[in-house]
Amino acid sequence: MAFSGALTLTDLNDFITPSQSCIKPVEQTNATPKHQSEGLASTEIRVDSDGAYYEVAMDGLKTKSGPQQQKLQAADISLNDCLACSGCITSAESVLISMQSHTEVLNFLASNPEDICVSHKVPVLSIAPQSLASLAASISSSSTSTPLPLHRILRRVEVFCKKVLGFEHVFDTTFARHLALQEHIREFRERRSGQGRLPMLASACPGWVCYAEKTHGEMLPFISRTKSPQQVMGTLVKEWMATKWHKSPSQIYHVTVMPCYDKKLEASRQDFYNDVYSTRDVDCVITTGELELMMREKDWDLSVPVEGEIADEIAGEANVAEPPLPTDSIHLPELISHPGTSSGSYLHTLIRSVVQDHPHALDLSVRNIRSSDYEEYTLTDRSSGEVVFRGAKCYGFRNLQNLVRKVGKEAGIQVGRGAAGRIGAMRGRAIKTKKGDTSAAGSTDKTYDYVEVMACPGGCVNGGGQLRPVAKAADKATDAEGFKRDWESSGVKIDEEDIGRIQGQSGKWGDKEWTKRVEVVYWHELPTPPPSPTPEGDSGSEKILSHLVDAKTQMADKLSTRILAETCQLNGDEKAVSWIDDMDQSAEGRRQKLFRTQYRAVESEVIGLAVKW
Ligand code: SF4
After folding, report:
1. Whose alpha carbon is nearest atom 6 of ligand 1?
2. How confident is the model at residue 479 (pLDDT cuts 50, 70, 90)?
3. How high is the pLDDT of residue 533?
4. Could you tell which of 343, 451, 519 is best to mutate to test the pocket of ligand 1, judged by most ligand atoms within 8 Å of the CB?
5. Contacts of 43 (CB under 8 A, 6+ apart)
6. How many Å lie between the centroid of ligand 1 and the Cα of residue 19?
7. How far apart are the first and last CA of the chain?
8. How far apart are CA 505 and CA 607, in angstroms?
9. For residue 433, how far is its CA from the centre of ligand 1 (angstroms)?
């Protein structure tokens, strides 16, 4: 399996052990015998040649269960335990990652019975646009050459997945993102009207959300509850498409291709497990690198055009004006563009929604706080000068730490440092807010209403599972973390290609030039205006709104309304409802279940083993 640079280990001694403080609680019921000195162990642990563990009494004493030697049961550590812990996270994630790998996908496809058998599962693959951009960038001959449009890469991936691997359906995830963004707008409006806490923080990035859960349990009220595009795609495939295909959710095997490993953790969350059918919304997540590895293993050359890819593209564009919407077909609009950021455009979508709702013209100003990874966006009423909305885009853990402290301080929360951070007694000390005040702390100096938070510097185009640039000669003496390595004297004989693989595909993770290249490819040939509203010359609300409507978006809106009515079992005429309108109570209940998450606060006060190895 191709690990990203971020996960490559420099020393191979990372077996399953708690490395810092494992939070898995241990109950110690037996008191230390009187004759035994404090701090001295009365038993020791032995491992036999089969790897079984035994507790063995020392000096003729007995183990707590009686006999001199007692076989121990294997510890049962769930994903929730791992998410709650910062100690052995590398090992635990490695285990999870090996369970969600491209070999798992290949094994499943090889063992999937013929479609005439009842036990056959429909294999479906959904790929993120950032992964397509990474693949497109990797086959461009140089940084100055014209990149291939994402449509063509999608066609080639589709042909590979269907003809070589055996998938029956291949989609991109931009339509799911379209639904997620609409649900996001709805949730933001709910919070603004007082049914939730502001600022609202984006929930699409599991890297950041897992971090917040682990370290700042009480921060959860701020995190959006809207499902990420990956999980909305899971709902679409296992709920909506399953019904169309007359299948149960467990008769579908859904694989996603994502730009990072954290998406594997996200798909494994308990929230996304269907108890009734014992299946997950997404069965297996592979990274862009793993998909590329599969292509290499199967001798598939992505740079070679597939039959009809240009004709398909032209036909696709022609169909956009009058989209076919037969009620029983599964025809998702492809590669819908959401102008803003290449990480999902959450902030920009909300900005456009605020502009649309406001009765007067608004001006947008953009302030660069530290770098392009931390920017502040402010909407001001042109006539009154009142600040109507303030949001930020905040990428990378360094910026994230600062942001978490800022938001915590403004909300009266004491935020600790590092993994041990915890929340103080916020309830008693929370700053009182004025009734109807939509800012976090009720300050006259308006605080953030929304923050698009992403864990990776540069956002999803720079995810840990993306492809790397070809390693330069100078990079070959260092590992992915920048340490000098003498591979040969360490007894490792490697060829040129292996060096690239050790470093996480090729060059280093976070290469700024490369990230810029993938970003350019991501936005290449999109039928929309430039991605980000700029502070000068493009700040009026008319300009911002002009990004809203294109034919494909209209088609996506129509289809999303239909899907909402069908999945939420809405009674009556679904044409009367747009995604963000209210529905009847039972339909709203279904919406919450299908398109929102239920984060669980992690217990922070537990007895730790505190074992140092
Ligand atoms: Fe994954 Fe990074 Fe994107 Fe977060 S920012 S979803 S960790 S690629």
Report:
1. 205
2. low
3. 45
4. 343
5. 55, 56, 57, 58, 61, 63, 64
6. 25
7. 28
8. 40
9. 33
Most confident of 60-64, 79-83, 298-302: 298-302
Report helix, strand or coil for 523.
Answer: helix
487: which 2 tokens? Answer: 């591979």
Q: How far is the centre of ligand 1, averaged over its atoms, from the C-alpha of 5 (Å)?
A: 14
Looking at the CA of residue 462, tell me the nearest atom of ligand 1: 8
Higher pLDDT: 428 or 352? It is 352
Please provide the DSSP assignment of 229-287 as one string. Answer: HHHHHHHIIIIIIHHHTT--GGGEEEEEEESSTHHHHHHTSGGGEETTTTEESSSEEEE
CA of residue 527 to ligand 1 center, whole Å: 25
CB contact set of 539 (below 8 Å; sequence gap of 6+): 363, 364, 365, 533
- Of 134, 165, 160, whose CA–CA distance to 147 is shortest? 134
What angle, rounded to 10 degrees, do the helices at 102-111 and 288-297 form?
50
| Phi, psi for 4 (deg, rounded to 5) | -75, 165
- The pLDDT, as a whole number, for residue 7 is 41
Annotate 576-590 with b (16+ C-beta within 10 A) or e (fewer): ebebbeebeeebeeb
556-579 tens-digit pLDDT: 998 999 899 889 877 665 555 788
Name residues contacting ligand 1 (CB within 6 A). Answer: 205, 207, 259-260, 262, 343, 454-456, 459-460, 463
Nearest protein CA to atom 3 of ligand 1, as residue:
460
pTM of the model: 0.75
pLDDT confidence bin for 75, thresholds 50/70/90: low
The model's pLDDT over 183-196, given as tens digits with 9 standing for 90+, comes to 999 999 999 988 77
Three-state secondary structure call for residue 206: helix
Nearest-CA residue for atom 4 of ligand 1: 205
Q: Are 335 and 150 in contact (CB under 8 A)?
A: yes
Task: Please give the Cα distance from 255 to 251 (Å, whole number).
Answer: 13
**Percentage of the residues of the chain whose pLDDT score is greater than 90:** 39
Mean pLDDT for all residues in the chain: 75
Instruction: Say how many Å lie between the CA of residue 206 and the centre of ligand 1.
Output: 7
53-68 mean pLDDT: 65
